[in-house]
Amino acid sequence: MNSSFLFTLIQFIFAFSVIAIIHELGHYLMAKSGKIEVEEFGLGFPPRAVKIFQYKETLFSLNWIPFGAFVRPKGENDPNIPGGLAAASPWKRLGMLLGGPFANILFGIIIFAFVFSQVGAPDTTRIMISEISPGSPAEQSGILANDQILSVADVPVNSMAIVSDTVRLHLGEEISIVVLRDGEEITLQIIPRKDPPEGQGPLGVVMGNPILKPGFLQAIPLAASTALDQAQQLFTLPLKLIQGQVTSEQARLVSPKGLFDIYSQVRNQQSSVESGSPGLAVVNILWFFGIISVAVGLTNLLPIPALDGGRILFVIPELIAGKRVPAKYENAVHMVGFTFLLALMAFLFLQDFINPVVLPK
Fold this sequence. Notes:
This protein is α+β, with helices and mostly antiparallel strands. The chain has helices spanning 3-33, 90-119, 137-141, 160-168, 216-235, 237-243, 256-274, 278-300, 308-321, 327-354, and strands spanning 38-55, 58-73, 121-122, 127-132, 148-152, 155-156, 175-181, 184-190, 205-208, 211-212. It has ten helices and ten strands. Strands 4, 5, 6, 7, 8 and 9 form a six-stranded antiparallel beta sheet that branches. The chain has a two-stranded antiparallel ribbon with strand order 1-2.
């Protein structure tokens, strides 16, 4: 085992453990805000190595398996235990269950905002010309690199999609295009070609977005939008898989071992670029784990028994109808779900050892 691999492994275990601790901290804080007693907050998984300290009724412990964390609320499955989770009102139970996933999503948003504040973010409302193909309609019309497109065929532009869609409606026709160049608006005439050369479009340009460097607070809405896009991709993945828009390999589930394989390959691919810029390496690592943190939060919201989302499913009928699902039935469903998740995790670990994830070069 070389030192580089060991260092990457330590990075991964530490970062993933932080994500798990953030998740459990969200559960813990929401439990305490709802007056739900927590018996133990464990760093790592049992067996227990040492008791760190006691805060009120909660024992904080360090455990031997250094990968993850857990919170053990009092009376988790028994509504007859006063001060326990199962005995709390449905709104308090809902808050405690949502606390973990929301903490992960919020943590990811904070990471994204920090990264955007350090390296900048594309201004998706402004469309710039980054490249022009020789002999293309764009070159012949006088369009220059770094021109900002304001309108096409009198249609105001605030996205690349608007440019592309408008141009397709006027193939072979002369249209006006208004660009901003050095603070001056310039109107040019252009004829989008019907049959462009392979690899080029009707105009013969490559479009992009200018990079802005917002402050941390200014970057939060953009970071939240990034997390929202990630949620949309996750929840629409099954439909895209059915429609053939993504392959089964692209939608493959992975274990922590598979995540580590992806992380180590990403680090290796970026090492040459980052060699002269240690700060860039840190930013890239943070971005990767920001994505993982949001993914952990979103995954835990899925309505799968034993996950937070599965437990939330049993709270919703009580909120709506005021009638609780008997604890024995709920516990049985979660036990089956937990057994299924353990079997799935074992399968994924085996899959990731036999057929490791390989990223395209």
